[in-house]
């Protein structure tokens, strides 16, 4: 009977999305997160450069997303001393590992979402 219950549980889980994959889509699926990573894939940028590259992204939302991406280990934040103090963001090794997937999304979008 325990064996049957184990098989039933395994069968139910086989159709479910892996929790790790679900977490990745939840993180990158947040509004602006994927675009921020895409912009930073082009190289380190200052806060205002990221905001300008995306356009309609508010400073408040950019700061919130940057904190989330930094907490997940995708983005590194460097404070540059001077006058004025500037903050530079760059992808970490973990963030750069997303670049092939982002290029794939970009290629797909250019092929299928052009008007």
Written description of the protein model:
The chain has 115 residues and is of the alpha+beta class. It has one domain (2-112): Winged helix-like DNA-binding domain superfamily/Winged helix DNA-binding domain (Arc Repressor Mutant, subunit A). 61% of the residues lie in helices and 12% in strands. A three-stranded antiparallel sheet has the order 1-3-2. A hairpin with a 5-residue loop joins strand 2 and strand 3 (86-91). The relative contact order is 0.12.
Q: What is the count of helical runs?
A: 7
**Broad CATH class:** Mainly Alpha
Element order: H for helix, E for strand: HHHEHHEEHH
Rg, alpha carbons: 19 Å
First-to-last CA distance: 58 Å
Mean pLDDT: 90
Biggest β-sheet: count, sense, barrel? 3 strands, antiparallel
What's the β-strand tally? 3
- The amount of beta strand, in percent, is 5-15%
The CATH topology turns out to be Arc Repressor Mutant, subunit A
What's the topology here?
Elements: H1 2-14, H2 19-28, H3 33-40, E1 45-46, H4 47-54, H5 59-71, E2 75-80, E3 86-91, H6 93-96, H7 99-112
Antiparallel strand pairs: 1-3, 2-3
Summed up:
The protein is α+β, with helices and mostly antiparallel strands and 115 residues long. Helices cover 61% and strands 12% of the residues.
Give descriptors for this structure:
three-stranded antiparallel sheet, Arc Repressor Mutant, subunit A, about 120 residues, about 10% strand
């Amino acid at each position: 009977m325990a064996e049957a219950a184990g098989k039933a549980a395994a069968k139910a889980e086989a159709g479910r999305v892996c929790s790790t994959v679900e977490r990745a889509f939840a993180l990158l699926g947040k509004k602006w997160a994927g675009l921020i990573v895409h912009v930073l894939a082009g190289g380190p940028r200052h806060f205002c450069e990221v905001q300008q590259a995306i356009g309609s992204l508010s400073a408040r939302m950019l700061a919130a997303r940057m904190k989330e991406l930094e907490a997940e280990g995708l983005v590194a934040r460097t404070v540059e001393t001077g006058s004025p103090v500037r903050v530079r963001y760059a992808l970490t090794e973990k963030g750069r590992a997303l670049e092939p997937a982002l290029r794939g999304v970009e290629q797909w979008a250019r092929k299928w979402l052009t008007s």
